[in-house]
Specification:
single chain, 358 residues, alpha/beta, Quinone Oxidoreductase, Chain A, domain 1, Rossmann fold, seven-stranded mixed β-sheet, six-stranded parallel β-sheet
Amino acid sequence: MTAAAVLRAVDGPLTVEEIELNPVGPGQVRVRLAAAGVCHSDLSLANGTLRQPLPAVLGHEGAGVVVETGPDVTGVAPGDHVVLNWSPPCRACWYCAAGEPYLCEHADDARAVPFASTGGEPVFAGLGTGAFAAETVVGANACIPVPADLPLAEAALLGCAVLTGVGAVTNAAGVRPGESVAVIGLGGVGLAAIQGARIAGASAIVAVDPAPEKEGLARSLGATHFRTPSAGLAKEIRALTGGRGADHAIECVGRGETIRAAWSATRRGGTATVVGLGAAQDPVPLNALEVAYYARTLRGCMYGSTDPAVDVPILLEHHRAGRLDLAALVTDEVDLSGVGEAFSRMRAGRGARTLVRF
């Protein structure tokens, strides 16, 4: 038995319960969690914006220690420190063969299969990982080994916020030295994107968030300017970028209005990259004239367009060299009973990443 925060109904409370993990099967491993970040995608699963079979243990940004392996497992062994990959590629489908493992056809397979039970009732793992539990069972391909000297609380952030934020800048947008970047939304992903823009050598980095108290942290991580959302935001960003607009806008909120703001803040010929996962019922207003006239690119970005097996070692190099600050992204720490409170802070736009420590 293991303690877990269980969601039983859409928009319902998360209750800490004892669940029984399924036996470790072929190609699977059992991981004892050390820490898990609370991501906006967890909130989207909880409130029904993203579909998730229930009851479920949410949490997908986790790190811990392998304690058991099943048959046919290679690459990890008991005692290994690992980061969980909530979108593990199969390496065999069309997308994987095309060099786009972040779009793998089978990345979501584990979401539909119970990983535990309680009172005989099956329990599903949020995004296939179930990291809001003291222990979880995942596929071995969902484990990314990390050095044992890296604090696991920091390693957990690599599993989503940092891979997604930095990857959006370096992989999806392809920001080059000297280009300007606007980052809209300063949660964990947005703050990671700011660091990614600085690492990429961006000249002007404009951080945008409705919470003024985030300015200091944003600037400490690389932002050169800070603005709060307003009707005149695009004009303000043009004034900071030679009158043209940002070469790149990175949207980390997932709302129609902020995607539109990112588009409007981008120069003619620039690129707006959407990272935030929004609701299917939330449209993005564009008119037919501006699409051609501004010659901008509006593109989506899933999981930072990363291959975690390749990109996590690169991020670790940046971290060891002092270019990437992981600890600064954590503004609150809780135990399992505090996940609901973390959701409330997220709804209110307070703080960056909340970390669940086990």
